[in-house]
Amino acid sequence: MTKKRSPAPKQPAAIIGAGIAGIATAVRLALKGHAVTVFETQDTFGGKMHQFSLPGGYRFDAGPSLFTLPALVDELFRLAGREPQDHFRYQRLDPITQYFFADGTRLTAWADKEKFAREVEEKLGTPAADVLGFLRRSGRAYAATESTFLHKSLHKAGTYFSADVLKAVAALPGLGLTGTMHQRHASAFRDARLVQLFDRFATYNGSDPYQAPATLSLIPHLEHGIGAFYPEGGIYSIAQSLVGLAEELGVKFRYSEPVLEILTADKQVTGVRTEQDVYDFGLVVSNMDVVPTYRRLLPTQPAPERTLRQPRSSSALIFYWGVAREFAELGLHNIFFSEDYRQEFAAIFGQKTVSPDPTVYVNITSKLTSTDAPAGHENWFVMVNVPHNEGQDWDKLIQTTRRAVLDKVSRTLGVAVEPLLQAEHVWDPRGIEQRTSSFGGALYGSSSNNALAAFLRHPNFSGKLQGLYFCGGSVHPGGGIPLCLLSAKIVAELI
Ligand SMILES: Cc1cc2nc3c(=O)[nH]c(=O)nc-3n(C[C@H](O)[C@H](O)[C@H](O)COP(=O)(O)OP(=O)(O)OC[C@H]3O[C@@H](n4cnc5c(N)ncnc54)[C@H](O)[C@@H]3O)c2cc1C
Prior knowledge:
The chain is α/β, with parallel strands linked by helices. Helix content is 34%, strand content 18%. The protein is built from 16 helices and 19 strands. The strands form five sheets. The protein has a seven-stranded mixed β-sheet. The protein has a five-stranded parallel β-sheet with strand order 9-2-1-13-19, with helices on one face. Strands 10-11-12 form a three-stranded antiparallel β-sheet, with no helix packed on it. The model has no long low-confidence stretch (mean pLDDT 92). Keywords: Carotenoid biosynthesis, Membrane, Oxidoreductase, Transmembrane, Transmembrane helix. This is Phytoene desaturase.
């Protein structure tokens, strides 16, 4: 009789950072049988996805506000044998966004494609059939490329020999995805406002529609094809519910304990060092931005300079305002467009400054979570896209931008907003960098401003050090909640 061999014990794993990707990786590795410890600099989890309150009863999600592909969160609960609904609930948004154009036109982006297309025909004069045709093509592009570019490592030869990839490559020429995103939109639509509306999707990963490749015009499919969602209680509940799951699975979180060094010997990671102690780990996953991971935690290791020098994505300047009034014409997501989009992006990515007439995004969670503001009041998260931090005079830029934002929003709504402000907090690229270690405070790691960007992002593993992996917005497949969740999936599969 042959003796049954018990499986080799799994290596204990350290995760550096409790951002959404770090938390998701912790869940996946715990499910694979690893003993997982998450080290986090801050005294709480979430990274960019944290929450805070302002005096007067206002709660804010500090970072992300738009949520797509909720199935990626559900998947983690299902993998753990839990019913997602018992832990994490969300609703599909309809309408999704209220658009305010510089010429005074207002447009509602309805979740229902036909209804949205009819709205575009009525307000902008573009035939509904053109909009539906464009969205269909965007859906086809998404279906052809999703599995290859988002769900797998682009840095393993095996990826290139799968049936999915051959299918994706064969489909590309027929999808009309050459040139830039803006060129694609400008050739699909004559109305400059509609082009601006679709160009805006470049900002979903911090890019410039005038440089980003046309492949990014599949992003509208996420919102208009699959849907935009709102988690019960706000975006923070994504991190909160997944940390709950991780803890149930035995993951240990060590808050207020930044990792100072990744320890190595003979081209293999051996552990991490913090101020408190030295810990042995055969597996280390960094959820810290890849640039400071190399510069600060691995100072004596050769760094992949070309990858680390890729241009950064945009950052953000956010005003969090407690507003003593309700605005019936506003919804959860609201966009007040600039007059000259090309000039706005040239300011951000060319001159590395803030446009004097920026597009303003206003997110108001109290529209759906009434406890986020006192009755009759609203919690405004007011965001402007700005360059990443390169030592600009942010104090001055905050002052001028605040004035421009107040003027634009007040003019559009026909109400002086400044006298309604009861509470205020500002987060700028310096603060984002300081709080999360994101290089330059970039929201999405490196930008997607060239056709090869997807391939130039850092892989999810180290080619030099055994046992070292990377997850989060600064590595493949990129920034934003869904892609961060996918990076966790890729890391778990690679391990
Ligand atoms: C203002 C703003 C708006 C955004 N809007 C959206 C949106 O609408 N939709 C969307 O999908 N995405 C949005 N994003 C992007 C999204 O928030 C990020 O892509 C995502 O949350 C990044 O997650 P992450 O796992 O990479 O880690 P991060 O959130 O960057 O967290 C990294 C964590 O690692 C910790 N850490 C760093 N170094 C160390 C160390 N040495 N030791 C221990 N811990 C360490 C940090 O403290 C931090 O908690 C937005 C981001 C911001 C800031």
